[in-house]
Amino acid sequence: MLKKIIPSIVFPLLIALSLIPSGLAQKPSPVRVGDPFPPFSLKNNLSQEELKALRLPQKESITLNDFTSEIILVEMLNVHCHTCKEQVPVFNQLWDSLKSNQILKNKADLIGITVGNNPKEISAFQKGFTPRYPIFADPSKSVFDSLGNMKEGTPQTYLLRKAPSGAWFVLYHHPGSVGSHEVYLRKIEALYKADLEGLEPGYKVPQLLLTTLKTKYPSEPFKNKRLLLYFPPLEAFPLDDDIRNAGHQLKVVLSFVNEENLVIVIIGALNRIFSPQKLEKLQKIPTTTLLLQDDTGTLQRRFEVGENPLLCLVNDSGRIVYRSHSLTHVRAEEILQGKVTPLTPNLTKKELLKLMQNSMKVVEEGIETIEKKELENSETIYLGFTGEEKQNASLFGRVVSKYSICDICHNVHFFYILDHNGHIVYLSPIGLTKFGNVTWDQQDIAKLKSRVVGKDPFKPLLFDPYVDAVSQATMTSYLIFEGLNDTKTILQNFSDNGFRSEHWKALCLHNLCQIKKTISLDKKALPGSFTLEDHTTLDMEKLQKHFPSKTVSKCPTGGNYLLIGENPLCSIHGMNLEPCPK
Q1: Share of the chain above pLDDT 90, in %
Q2: Statement: 41-193 belongs to CATH 3.40.30.10
Q3: Which long-range contacts (CB under 8 A, 24 or more apart) does 164-169 make?
Q4: N or C: which terminal CB in the chain sees fewer CB atoms within 10 Å?
Q5: pLDDT in tens, 64-79
Q6: Is the separation of the CB atoms in 420 and 498 below 8 Å?
Q7: What is the pTM of this model?
Q8: Rounded-to-integer distance, Cα 474 and Cα 79, Å
């Protein structure tokens, strides 16, 4: 081990690996009415006139916090989306109505944010369909992805209002088209006049509830907690299996007793609804379930509870995000845990394996066996082996499913195959359609292959809609490129089965050069200070604390660094025999 190293010497070891996320980023939960709208920063592609109309500063990037209005209507659109094109007259009328309204013209704004379109595409859209409202370019569709509502496609419209805290909350969400601008105009006028306390999703929960809870449970912390409110019915419904009956609903409600950051509140004339024995059991449930007696009906009247039961979910910002007469377990999981049904091709696991096997044999005749492998990030890849030896694979396959950007289009399903260097050698559709939901033909597939086969997906694959897109399938083509670009995130740290072995070796040998350079600098700086306790093993953990970066790169495939004389080597990749860069 190195016994002494001068701390002031800079240790310029490669740290790129340590900066890469360990796995695929977790997909966001869908943003619902009542939730905060995710903050964004978009490159400024607006004209001076558009910036002036929105009262925005002239700067390189525009953020959500730059808006000075109180209300913003955000349309998520794609310039190739048929419905989005039809929506332009509606939003033009809304824009004109807002700007001609003496009260709202400085209080409410309307903007479009594209889903995967660049400024050049927006310019063509503006010439062809003449939208009068400003449209921001989001070529990476980062805003759309942060909303988590991929299943809805485009267009989607969000109505936001700024809270005193500065956060923007979603007060209305509409997926798909709308026939008249008056729908939005009426909502904007109502929201401007409202104090934001109300009973529908998007509004603050009535203060009366919070005051009553705090009075009855003074030691219970309600701040930043979610509340699941249940007003059970006074009378039973005639059919035993009616989900509105208290027995059925309680099973659903109480199944979330241990849900993180959730307080269950059961409200009503509970002595009349439940037997003494049932009430006693409810009172023994942990303090995350609270009972509010409301014999006078004060809370029931405030929440406008009728003959039907009522269930409301209040998020940790104190806003109602769900209101209904009943709640199923599946729906509760969706709204409480943000679960979204995974998108998968309409094929069995056996059919997918067979499809991958046949395709890999087209690429390489010697492929004998195919195995499916689950990665630590929950992604699945397929390994193709040429013989009985299963240490190194020759081919690596991945299936991609993407929700369509368009509200009337099919979802996207395809797969591709990489060689052992990580280059794309094959791509094939599972379900790809173009305008009118027409299935891609062989010419379409050949066009796509000509654009991507042979490329390295660990480098950015830039999508140019005027060159790369299949005719009448621009959005689908975009999603395919997006799926291929996901490779870097999903497989960036995957080094098993010989995958990208030359890449990992190059990184390791670069590390050896840096270690050798450090040892050389150390000896020149203070001769005799560099000593070895054991003449072979380099203790990388011990080296860590001596250098300002606090990060010492290890062999990316798990090899140990050793020292032969003054030359470092790796137990897996050997010694670097090539000249090190100066």
Answers
A1: 62
A2: yes
A3: 166/65, 167/36, 167/317, 168/36, 168/37, 168/39, 168/64, 168/72, 169/34, 169/35, 169/36, 169/37, 169/202, 169/317, 169/319
A4: C
A5: 999 999 999 999 999 9
A6: yes
A7: 0.78
A8: 10
